[in-house]
């Protein structure tokens, strides 16, 4: 933890100028409904291609993944299920509607799935939310995005009340144009609903936007919504898993993305 209250959990750059861990080919490619790739026809012609940036929160802007995993692990154990911290952590990035079916049987879900999710939410907000800190350079990155004329959305699988607190913790409430949470949609990530809701709110098409996230579930949701995505490693998933899921570029975290902004999809 730094002296200014930010988390410094970001892959080190060795004291050198930051560069992306990996980058896709430019012009960017877009997923088509059948899973193949096509080039954005106007990628080189339109200097204002990126009109909106959609940021995930947990593990992308805030160092909160372990805390979420711990609260899910504790909830599972409390209700009699042998689910390890590591198993829970591997599912963070999904909303409860997607996470619980991965870890519990259908019978267990019927018996106490909703009760357990409520217990988990209360546990997280009372015990762990006060410990959440932003990664370094988060407000600076979002200001740089706004200075480039790109509108900013926060698109998270978190609950709406948690998301409001997250914006306060990160110090970015005045930098965000719109937000979408799991409460606003039928299905959370990796379904595309959250990203599609943001597209509708901003009145832009998928090829006009770039998503930034830390999990394969972010990448899968973005791909389904026809949005290019930049991955960050600070949430704990590997670069290879992010690339395999569809991330065009992968950076250590927000500070590295800021340092490489001119070479990132956000500036194109």
Automatic annotation (TrEMBL):
- Per the record, which residues fall in region Disordered? 1-36
- Which UniProt key words apply to this protein? Hydrolase
User: Has keyword Hydrolase?
Assistant: yes
List where Polar residues composition bias occurs: 20-36
According to the UniProt entry, its GO molecular function terms are: phosphoglycolate phosphatase activity
SUPFAM superfamilies in UniProt:
HAD-like (SSF56784)
Record-level GO cellular component terms:
cytosol
Q: Superkingdom of the source? A: Bacteria
User: Which Gene Ontology biological process is one annotated for this entry?
Assistant: DNA repair
PANTHER family reported in the protein's UniProt record:
BLL8046 PROTEIN, PHOSPHOGLYCOLATE PHOSPHATASE
The molecule here is called HAD family hydrolase
Organism this protein belongs to: Bradyrhizobium canariense
């Amino acid at each position: 933890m730094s002296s200014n209250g930010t988390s410094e959990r970001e892959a080190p750059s060795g004291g050198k100028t930051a560069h992306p861990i990996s980058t896709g080919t430019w012009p960017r490619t877009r997923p088509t409904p059948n899973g193949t790739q096509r080039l954005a026809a106007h990628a080189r012609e339109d200097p204002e291609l990126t009109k909106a940036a959609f940021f995930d929160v947990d593990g992308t802007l805030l160092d909160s993944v372990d805390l979420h995993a711990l609260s899910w692990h504790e909830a599972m154990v409390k209700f009699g299920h042998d689910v390890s911290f590591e198993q829970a952590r591997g599912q963070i990035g999904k909303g409860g509607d997607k996470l619980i079916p991965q870890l519990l049987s259908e019978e267990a879900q019927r018996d106490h799935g909703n009760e357990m999710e409520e217990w988990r939410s209360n546990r997280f907000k009372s015990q762990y939310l006060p410990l959440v800190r932003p990664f370094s350079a988060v407000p600076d990155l979002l200001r740089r995005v706004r200075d480039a004329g790109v509108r900013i959305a926060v698109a998270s699988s978190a609950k709406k009340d948690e998301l409001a607190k997250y914006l306060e913790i990160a110090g970015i409430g005045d930098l965000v144009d719109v937000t979408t949470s799991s409460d606003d949609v039928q299905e959370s990530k990796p379904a595309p609903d959250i990203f599609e809701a943001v597209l509708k709110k901003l009145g832009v098409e998928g090829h006009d936007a770039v998503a930034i996230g830390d999990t394969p579930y972010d990448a899968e949701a973005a791909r389904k919504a026809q949005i290019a995505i930049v991955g960050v490693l600070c949430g704990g998933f590997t670069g290879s898993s992010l690339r395999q899921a569809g991330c065009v570029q992968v950076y250590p975290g927000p500070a590295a993305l800021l340092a490489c902004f001119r070479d990132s999809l956000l500036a194109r």
